[in-house]
Amino acid sequence: xxxxxxxxxxxxxxxxxxxxxxxxxxxxxxxxxxxxxxxxxxxxxxxxxxxxxxxxxxxxxxxxxxxxxxxxxxxxxxxxxxxxxxxxxxxxxxxxxxxxxxxxxxxxxxxxxxxxxxxxxxxxxxxxxxxxxxxxxxxxxxxxxxxxxxxxxxxxxxxxxxxxxxxxxxxxxxxxxxxxxxxxxxxxxxxxxxxxxxx
Length: 199
Hints:
Layout: H1 8-17, E1 25-26, H2 34-40, E2 55-58, E3 68-71, E4 76-81, E5 85-94, E6 102-111, H3 119-124, E7 142-147, E8 153-159, E9 170-172, E10 176-178, H4 180-189, E11 195-198
């Protein structure tokens, strides 16, 4: 009897997830409130590119547990766990004109935050305006606010998005965007004052 042929995509996916030394393990979605479910359903999610899906992996960063590392060229964010593990998330990073690198700390966490675009952004794009939290808000479901070493707000955020189709691209004004389900997952894991490294 002939064995059924597996779809090439299935074979390739299995191979990708089982490469020696870089075993990827999908992680379950976080628990969501009724409000999260309702509002997140209003942001259409494209089919996710597996390169930017959420996985638990061997930690490639060498940083201390609890640290967030953003590898801008890879379009990946790593949250370092104990035992040399990390959660890897696909992200949107700053486009060439607005990208940045350096160290920061989280000084505030917010669910469905209001958006107050900085003056320089309004100058570039006069059509943008402050907006209450919600499905149409560019900050999405959660935001992590970043401060520099002196404690000053950098005006950069790690946040959700109302444009999930741009995950994996360099398309933001410097903020790190995540799928809403992923930013909820990170928000639930990360501690106050966590170190953030953007490379």
